[in-house]
Amino acid sequence: MTERLALIGFGEAAQAFAPGLAASLAAFDRKTDLDGMRAAKLAEFVRFGVEGCETSAAALTGAGAALSLVTADQALAAAEAAPVEADCLWFDMNSVAPETKRAAAIAIEGRGGRYVDVAVMAPVHPKRTSVPLLLAGPYAEAGAALLRGLGFSNVSVAGDGVGTASAIKMIRSVMIKGIEALSAECVLAAEAAGVRAAVIASLDASWPGADWAARFDYNLDRMIVHGARRAAEMDEVVRALDALGTGSAMSRATAARQRAIGGRGIAVPDGLDAKLEALRA
């Protein structure tokens, strides 16, 4: 058990976890360095009762462990910039390629820290600290014990090699994020052609109980809100697949579709009709 826990990145995941964690929480988020976002981020620190820090070094001072919860494109940079104290457990919870995690492990362990590859295997809402976590690396068992002590209730170990948990998450994302992108392409085309109801009826007949209208609505919701972040994750998926040599054409297209919808910057409309209208505008 650690008395002080550093949260590096204080976005959706960190805010979902914070209320259920049994530790004194210190947080750093690089958005506090941006004039247009600083006030809102500082207010979030106060609202969640965490100690807001101006630097990652301040958040990590005295911390026995840290949760890295930044965006995929910042995961390695966060590890390289983190002045962890000796034996600090660095839980890299970011959705990045195994190669990225191994590079981050070198950075953390080069300063005397203990690196743990963590894959968050489901959306953090509504599960919060009961979300499934998959750990890997030489410090995975020690890390699992500490996470359980902090309040995470669904923790398992995939193996002792850094990158194992990440590989499982990345390859799973080929399907999960790919289905989102494919469903967006399908329903947008069906709407444009004026045959949405018929397409949904045909899909429901092929997959009894699937409720494709609800699936389209949910998937578009996730892409509108998280498309930019999902695209960054899919860029890492492409990197992982290219390293394996198995091909990444579908994942490249998924990243492009996620980025296109997430980049629209629209407020999430309520219901499938409203979402389609907003996306076609």
Using only C-alpha atoms, the radius of gyration works out to: 20 Å
Biggest pleated sheet: 8 strands, mixed
Q: How much of the polypeptide forms β-strand, as a percent range?
A: 5-15%
CATH architecture of the largest domain: 3-Layer(aba) Sandwich
Residues in helices, as a percent range? 40-55%
At the first level of CATH, the class of the largest domain is Alpha Beta
Helix/strand order, N-terminal first: EHEHEHEHEHEEHEHHHHH
Helix count, DSSP H or I runs of 4 or more residues: 11
**How many DSSP-defined strands?**
8
- Please identify which CATH superfamily of the largest domain we are dealing with: NAD(P)-binding Rossmann-like Domain
Summed up, the domain count is 2
Strand order of the largest sheet: 3-2-1-4-5-6-7-8
Intertermini distance: 52 Å
General form: globular
- The assigned structural class equals alpha/beta
Report the mean per-residue pLDDT as an integer.
96
Query: What is the CATH fold-level name of the largest domain?
Result: Rossmann fold
Q: Which stretches are poorly predicted, pLDDT < 50 over at least 5 residues?
A: none
